[in-house]
Write a structure and sequence with these properties.
Layout: H1 2-24, H2 29-33, H3 43-62, H4 67-70, H5 73-77, H6 92-96, H7 102-122, H8 125-129, E1 131-133, E2 140-141, H9 142-166
Antiparallel strand pairs: 1-2
């Protein structure tokens, strides 16, 4: 069962990975930071956030350090945010502080995608049933967390593509 489950997860994450460069292609920092409204998320935040969620949650499942912290991405981005921030619950002002180049966003997400595949390769059937977050009722298993991450990153890459389509000419 694990081979099939991991194969499905690999495919889901690969689809997001393949979509990110299309969204970022030929956009400058101003375009990436543009928002269609005062409470709408810009492309830079959407891609950063989906990468941060995937990085944080997969690291939590595997018991590894986050790529963001361990591989210097936090320093490279130099955002005026807490290094452990992944974007949940941010105010509109905090969202606007996520300014980055397409190259940095793509580079970070590529590193996260590579780590994701490394983590997926280590999963066993028992890992899918393991509780990874007891703050919820019922507690969250690795399988539920993985499905949640796929859902989150898929939605955000789609939102980023939509915002790209709204960019002023």
């Amino acid at each position: 069962m694990t081979d099939r489950s991991v194969s499905l997860l690999r495919d889901a994450f690969a689809r997001v990975y393949e979509s990110v460069p299309e969204v970022l292609s030929d956009l400058d920092e101003e375009q990436l930071a543009w928002s269609p409204g005062p409470h709408a998320n810009p492309i830079s935040w959407l891609i950063w956030h989906l990468a941060r969620v995937q990085d944080d949650h997969l690291a939590g499942i595997a018991g590894h350090d986050q790529v963001w912290l361990a591989d210097g991405w936090c320093e490279r981005f130099a955002l005026p945010l807490d290094p452990h921030d992944i974007g949940y619950g941010q105010t509109a002002d905090e969202v606007r502080q996520v300014v980055a180049s397409a190259g940095d966003l793509q580079g970070y997400y590529s590193a996260v995608h590579t780590r994701t595949n490394e983590i997926l390769d280590t999963l066993t059937d028992a890992d899918f049933d393991r509780i990874v977050d007891e703050r919820w009722d019922p507690p969250v298993t690795a399988a539920i967390r993985l499905v949640s991450v796929v859902n989150d990153v898929t939605q955000h890459v789609g939102q980023a593509a939509y915002v790209r389509g709204l960019l002023p000419s």
